[in-house]
Structures are given as C-alpha cells and as structure tokens.
Amino acid sequence: MKFKEHIVSFMFLLFFIFMLSSPSSTIDAALNGMTLFADIIFPSLFPFFVLTAMLPAISWVSLLARLFGPVMKPLFNVSGQGALVFIAGSLSGFPIGAKMTADLLKNHKISIPDARRLICYTNGASPMFVIGAVAGGLMNQPSLGIILFLCHLCGNVIIGIAAGRLIKGPSLERNPIDHSKGDYLTLFRESVTVSVKQLIIIGGLITFFSVCIELFEQLLSSFSDGLKTEKMQILIAGVLELSNGVEAAVRFSDPYTASVIVLAMMSFSGLCIHMQVITFIDQLPISYQSYLISRLFHMILSPVIFMIHQFFFPFKTDKLPAVDVMSPVHIGVNLSQCLTVIVLFICVVILIQLRYKEKPRY
Prior knowledge:
The protein has about 350 residues and is mostly helical. Helix content is about 75%, strand content about 0%. It contains 15 helices and no strands.
C-alpha cells in the first residue's frame, strides 16, 4: 500500500471516530451545511443550471459564437462558444463555468483542447458574492467590492491568455449547426432532472465539508490556542470550503490583509468547489491537473494585482456601522458602477473585434 493511501485511510478513520465521539457536533455541522445549501446555494444555482443545460440547443447561441469568434480566438485561442462560457462563469460564479464547458463538450460544440483551456479560467467567483456578500456583508466595505471582483476577473483573464498559448490543440473550425427542430419541452424537462441530480451532489459535498471543518476546528482547539489557532482556522477553512474561509479571514484580519487573503481563497476556491468541478469533468477527457495548476497560479496572481492597484490607488475605508453578517445582506450596490463595468467590457470586446475585422480567424 502506498504512503498516500495510508494518509487517506487515516483521514477517513479520524473522521469516522469524530462522528462517533461527537454526534451532536456532527449533526449541527451537517445541519449548517444543509441549511446553507437549501437557503442559498440551491435557489441561486438551480435556474442557472437549467438554462446552461439548454443553451447548446438554442439556435441563437451559434450566432453569438460567430460574433465573438474573432475576439476569443486571438485572445484565448478558443472558438466563439468559449465567450458564452467565460461570461456566464464570470457573472454566475462557481461552478457554472465548469458545467457549461462539460455540456458544450458533450454536445460537440467545442473541441477537447478548447474544453481543456476553458476549464482553467471560466470558473470564478460571481460579482454578487464578491461585492454583496464578501465586501458589503462581511467586510462592511461595499466600495471595495468592485476592486476585488475586477482583480479576481483580471487574474482569470491572464490565466486564460496563458492557457491559450500553453495548451495545444485545434478548435472547431466551424460551429456545427443543428437543422433539426428541437423539442424544447422535453429538453426543459431533461435539463431540470439533470440539474437537480447535479445540485444534490453539490449539496452532499457542502454538507460533508462542513463536518470536516468542524472536525479540524475541534482538533485545533484541543491542541493549541491563541493567534496560531486563528491563523490555522483561516488556512484550513479556506482550503476546505470557500465561504467559511472568507468569513474566518475577515474576522481575524484588517481590511487590507483580509482583501489579500480573500482574493487568494476565492482564486483557489476551496476543495469543496474543486470536488464540484470534478463531478462535471469526470468521464470526460479534461484533466483536473490543469484546473488545479491554474487555480494555484490564480491564487498568487489576483492578490498581486490587488497589491499593485493599492500601491498606486489606495482605497479609503468606508466608515459604516457594523452589520450582522449572519443576517441577510442588503447592500445598495451603485447601479452606475455595475453599468460602467459592463460598458467597459463591451467596449473592449468591440475594439478587439474591430482590430481583427480585416483578418477574422475561426
């Protein structure tokens, strides 16, 4: 038996002993994970899962792919279909990018090399999570949210450009056009069924990792105390599950340090998100290793971008009354700021498209 197998066996044995010795803590942690899934994760992800499952069968998707083809090919070395994955993954959050990549590959809308490139940079935190929940609700610094999101997004863009050059292989020269009339009612029913099954797996992962975090926190409190324990809690929570890690980082750090740690955690995204991604790319010719490497580089890249930005344009701390982060967050994000980001993105897309209009590549 290999050393790695001994480690895994020991971890499972430790987890099983914890469940037997602390049944009340296990049940409470599991209930917290299930409550998080039922109250937030399922309602926020279910509509996106259904719609993304139906996207490959919608005729307009091919038209949009042709529109973005001259942009995506020189920038990320993927076909125009990749633009839909990148936009949806960036705006909808984990794990929409991985799901759309898997769906498009299964429907032969993208090539295998395109899927391997897309999986590296299309799975990121949503602006709702970064601006509303993290910056506004946990850090009580709403104006910092857009900076954090743009640093996170820029890191993914750089990763995407690098992946396009490093991961070799052709894209589909032309997007296949399906001339058959689709039964949208059947497609919708199948999309709902598949989405519910996938979300149940995600719910199980969240519940399991919630119990794991409780186990490690109790072990830490038993063997050590003080500042070292707090740092270890941040590290373990961030590695295992993103939401708990972000909350721990904000609780024990000043705004600047918390921003750097939070960006690193969001970029790595936690083992819980990694397991969700694996559920989508399992049985597909997409390597998890490339996704893991891209997350590790992104974990360094986005905090560096933030520190460079803060060196030239330091932010001013918002003087706002304290909020209860455990209650529902109601943050009045400035609409003009959101529109500005969208308009800037559209302008960049148009400028790049005009640059390659004379010699389009598909």
